[in-house]
Amino acid sequence: MTATGTFAPRPGAAPLGRMIAAQTALETRMLLRNGEQLLLTVVIPTLLLTLFSAVDIVDTGEGKAVDFLAPGVLALAVMSTAFTGQAIATGFERRYGVLKRLGTSPLPRWALMTAKTGSVLVTEGLQIALLTTVAFALGWSPHGPGSVLYVLLLLVLGTAAFSGLGLLMAGTLRAEATLAAANLVFLLLLVGGGVVVPLEKFPDAVRDVLGLLPISALSDGLRDVLQGGAGMPWGDLGILAGWAALGLGAAARFFRWE
Question: What is the distance between the alpha carbons of residues 59 and 184, in angstroms, rounded to a whole number?
Fold first, then answer.
């Protein structure tokens, strides 16, 4: 005999931390199963790093090409996940009513955004592990371990900046427009963001403008620390912090869930 009440239902939401962890795991699995997202987040950065390191296509200045390229490709990986991938995925979730339905669940909307950010960070961790392994295999010689803190600060602020801009785009444009715009921005910043082409190759007036972009600040900051052994890159951190505040603030103000 089963005691009375053994299987009695317990209505109510799960603890908030458990809900966020479950949603983060779900978001991560969905992202990693998406072929287009894998192309953006893994295949393209890895191919660029390998190809441009092995073949003398662009003059990257003195030293090994991989020493210049590795920091830029790490910045590209952050942008591909936090901005391009997140904008496209969130835009279509909004179009198909996924966000509207999740908004009626016990999971608060801010917790859903937290879960999406957690998914981005998990994916970036996998990207960085893969890309650094490939870079070391190609002969990369980064600066000593004392730069780890500076690198982490740059990556976190870069993620915040690109996430805010990606959510702003996904929450204000139609899904098809988000898909086109996010991919276009990805291509433009790949060429003009100091990822594989040094900003010194551009005219002075253009270089000054490009240097204020978040991808340029992230790639230059990482390059100064990892290639040049510089200290805290305050200027680049300031640019990234400004973009993060602008993007996240605008996303919070103008994001439409339906």
Answer: 25
